[in-house]
Amino acid sequence: MTSVYRKMTPLEHVLARPDTYIGSVETERAEHSYVLADDNGGTVMAWRPVTYNPGLYKIVDEIIVNAIDQSVLDPSVDKIAVDVDPDFGTITVLNTGRGVPVEKIEEHDGVWAPELIFGHLLTSSNYDDAEERIVGGKNGLGAKLTNIYSLKFDLEIVDPSSGQKYR
After folding, report:
1. Would you say 118 and 155 are in contact if contact means Cβ atoms under 8 Å apart?
2. 144 closest CA partner among 121, 116, 165, 110
3. How far apart are CA 155 and CA 85, in angstroms?
4. 146 φ, ψ (degrees, to nearest 5)
5. How confident is the model over 69-115, as pLDDT tens digits?
6. Taking burial as the number of CB atoms within 10 A of a residue's CB, which of 41, 42, 47, 136 is the most buried?
7. Are 118 and 124 in contact (CB under 8 A)?
């Protein structure tokens, strides 16, 4: 007899049930929202109706919040930049500072720290509930969801202490 019960891996569940993790993936229309607009050669904020996808908004927000969190934790961060290229359909987020160490984490089977942080669900440095939380992210999902739901997810980290680069 075949069971009606099914067990998914965490990745299968994230892909099959995006609304659980990032909200709706159905395009919505908001009657008014502030958007960047061109105004006689300059860029201004304009109050306009918009059509958007809440799930896409969430995954972009997750990676930007990561960059901002790093600026809270690392005073050497002196730049956060977000570049949207509609012609290529890309969004690039850059932040400066110490970054993630480029090292293998032996207690996690020698996985490189950047791969663990950006590629393995349910990994985080924010699991100590006794610490006062001053940044976002407590479930080990954020940046990984951006990775999972992206057609292409490039990551480049330069470890200033060792000079190593991870791509």
Report:
1. yes
2. 121
3. 17
4. -60, -45
5. 888 888 889 999 999 999 999 999 999 888 889 999 999 999 999 99
6. 136
7. no
Looking at the chain, list the stretches that DSSP marks H as alpha helix, in order from N- to C-terminal side.
Answer: 10-16, 18-22, 54-73, 113-119, 142-149
C-alpha to C-alpha distance for 50 and 57, rounded to whole angstroms: 12
Which amino acid is it at 21? Y
Copy the structure tokens of residue 134.
Answer: 């001053």
* 121 within 8 A of 147, measured Cβ to Cβ: no
pLDDT tens-digit profile of 115-153? 999 999 988 876 777 877 767 667 788 899 999 999 999
Give, in degrees to the nearest 5, the angle at Cα 83 between 100 and 80.
45
DSSP 15-52: HH-HHHHH---S-EEEEEEEEEEEETTEEEEEEEEEEE
C-alpha dihedral sign at 27, 22, 88, 79: positive
Contacts of 105 (CB under 8 A, 6+ apart): 111, 112, 113, 116
Backbone region of residue 41 per phi and psi (left: phi > 0; alpha: psi in -120 to 50; beta: other values):
left
Query: Distance between CA atoms of 56 and 54, rounded to whole angstroms?
Result: 6
Residue type, position 62, single letter: E
